[in-house]
Design goal:
The protein has helices spanning 14-23, 34-38, 50-59, 63-72, 81-86, 186-197; strands at 4-8, 27-31, 42-45, 76-79, 87-91, 103-108, 118-123, 132-137, 141-145, 150-154, 164-169, 172-175. The protein has 6 helices and 12 strands. It is an alpha/beta fold. Strand 7 and strand 8 form a beta hairpin. Strands 2-1-3-4-12-11-10 form a 7-stranded mixed beta sheet. Bound molecules: glutamine. Glutamine (GLN) is lined by residues 47-50, 80-81, 84, 109-110, 137-138.
């Protein structure tokens, strides 16, 4: 039986993640309500707008179920806004911004600044033979990573050189960039492997 992997679908770029997962042989479903979440062995929280995501998750009564599943060990992968949703602490968030938490990291929203709203470039990813092509769109970076957090990638060029942009802590992982738009499925495969091994 293939793993069932959900994509949080109340807001954000859902479709590319569903495609990437389906291409890897997973059963991929959009998650808008608790009953859909209950079917999932793992979950991706996509890029989008984290301040809208948590509000919609509250409105659709998905926030607490998500928090519970994550705390119980459901493998979860957050990209960009999804990274913010999994962060224990957010800098430059809105005053009332809530996150699901789980990752012992502090992220800075829109960290790369206005001038470099969006940029792309090669990034070495831990364990991969060749760099990934990372696309950053109003992306956060990781300001602080706790002791149990593995750093998987850092920016390698420009003013943000050295900034942490991919992490893993047990069943949770997150990237500042958007692996779903590059047509390179290695990071999705890395996550599907975590789901299948759990
Ligand atoms: N800046 C957005 C946020 O704060 C994230 C941008 C993205 O996901 N592409 O949620």
């Amino acid at each position: 039986m293939p793993a069932t992997i959900g994509v949080f679908a109340l807001q954000g770029d859902v479709r590319e993640h569903l495609h990437a997962l389906t291409n890897l042989g997973a059963e991929a479903i959009g998650v808008r309500r608790p009953a859909e979440l209950a079917r999932c062995d793992g979950l991706i929280i996509p890029g989008g707008e984290s301040t809208t995501m948590y509000k919609l998750a509250r409105t659709f009564e998905l926030f607490e179920p998500l928090r519970e599943r994550i705390a119980e060990g459901m493998p979860t992968f957050g990209t960009c806004a999804g990274m913010i949703m999994l962060a224990g602490e957010v800098l430059d968030g809105t005053a009332d911004q809530e996150t699901l938490g789980g990752l012992d990291i502090t992220v800075r929203r829109n960290a790369f600044g206005r001038q470099v709203d969006s940029f792309e470039g090669p990034v070495a990813f831990d364990g991969f033979a060749d760099p990934v092509h990372a696309v950053f769109i109003r992306a956060p970076w990781v300001d602080r990573a706790g002791e149990g957090v593995e750093v998987l990638a850092r920016v390698e060029q420009g003013p943000a050189t050295g900034r942490i942009v991919a992490v893993r802590e047990g069943h949770l992982m997150a990237t500042s960039f958007h692996p779903e738009v590059s047509g390179d499925d290695r990071i999705h495969r890395y996550f599907v492997d975590i789901v299948e091994q759990s």
